Amino acid sequence: MSTDDIGTNAAGRPQPAGGGQSGTAQAGSAQRTALERDARAALDASAARLDARIQSRLNQARHRAVEELAARQQRPAWQRWFGMGGGFGLVPAGAVAGVALVAVVLWTGRPEGRPGGMDTAAAFEDIELLADADALDLSTEADTEFVEWAALTAGESADTAVGT
Amino acid sequence: MPARRAGCRALVSTTPQARALDEFLASIQRKAFKIAQLALRHEDDALDAVQDAMLSLAHTYAGRPAEEWKPLFYRILDNRILDMQRRRTVRGRVMSWLPFKSRDAEGDDEQDPIEQAPSHEPSPLARLEIDESIAVLEQAIAGLPDRQRQCFLLRNFEGLDVAETAAAMGCSAGSVKTHYFRALQALREALGDTAP
């Protein structure tokens, strides 16, 4: 066996064959390997002898994690998307409500044939504002008068743009 | 079979990913507990850390390829351990000012049927000999610096390769090798004549 041959030690790690090492280094390598092997065996024995209480708690924790994953995966896609059913969704419900409101404003405020430059830009700004978490917090605090005013103003500004 | 367990198995059996996650967590839960226990030196804290890591993996990383789960899980577990160690440090400073006893010292009146179950352990003398050797080794490992202990346990106990260990520890492969070498040196010094 040449010095270029690479074998593996008990821990499965690459270890060059002998020949190039001194006796002390070889003994050191052998000692480290034995230490690793025995440490592994002792830790495995300790893990295998966990008492029933610990094993029960670990099983309960595992089941809970898996149950939550399976339950989340079992929900319809639209529920997962909007975070319903106790989990977390990809789109906050408030942002959805805000987008829906703006869509209603645009639908009711734009008769056919009208150019959409100014009110479209305003609508996009409204979407950004309503999608903002802070803005949503304000809107959820029953500031309905402001929302109604915003909707009314959007309609009035569109009428003004047509007249100019 | 209790209704909850039947419900759990029914849910698990319907999603391949949940089944795969269940198998993975079952394969690592004991070692994960031992690693956490050696770091925290407290069984209940170790259980909490492992549970938190399991939930976090299921919530956030279950969609990742299964071969990434092990280093991810141990990375999460290490973060939980660090959080607990920091909270323990802060709590210790606060509690040192307070005169009342901890709740653990008062004991627990509830009987755990699992704990009362008969055990199939070896004879008391054999158990004592095994316990002593394991205790000596665990004490030496627990006394290692945090990074050396983590590296040694992930490489030697859990069997992660250098790349996986580096991912779990958030360091380079070179750092892993350095930590591991130093851990071996420290263990040899700590174990002295008892080292094989």
What's the topology here?
The complex is a heterodimer of chains A (164) and B (196).
Chain A: E1 6-8, E2 14-16, H1 23-48, H2 52-74, H3 77-81, H4 93-109, H5 117-131, H6 133-140, H7 144-163
Chain B: H1 3-14, H2 16-40, H3 43-61, H4 69-95, H5 113-116, H6 124-142, H7 146-157, H8 162-169, H9 173-191
Helix pairs in contact in B: 1-2, 2-3, 2-4, 3-4, 4-8, 6-9, 7-9, 8-9
Walk me through this protein's architecture.
The complex is a heterodimer of chains A (164) and B (196). Chain A has seven helices and two strands. By secondary structure, chain A is mainly α. The N and C termini of chain A lie far apart (95 Å). The model of chain A is unreliable at 1-21 (pLDDT under 50). By secondary structure, chain B is mainly alpha-helical. In chain B, 74% of the residues lie in helices and 0% in strands. Chain B is built from nine helices and no strands. In chain B, helix 2 packs antiparallel against helix 3 (43-61), helix 3 crosses helix 4 (69-95) and helix 4 packs parallel to helix 8. The longest helix of chain B is centred in the middle third of the chain and has 27 residues, at 69-95. Chain B starts with a helix and ends in a 5-residue tail after the last helix. The interface between A and B is large, with 43 and 51 residues.
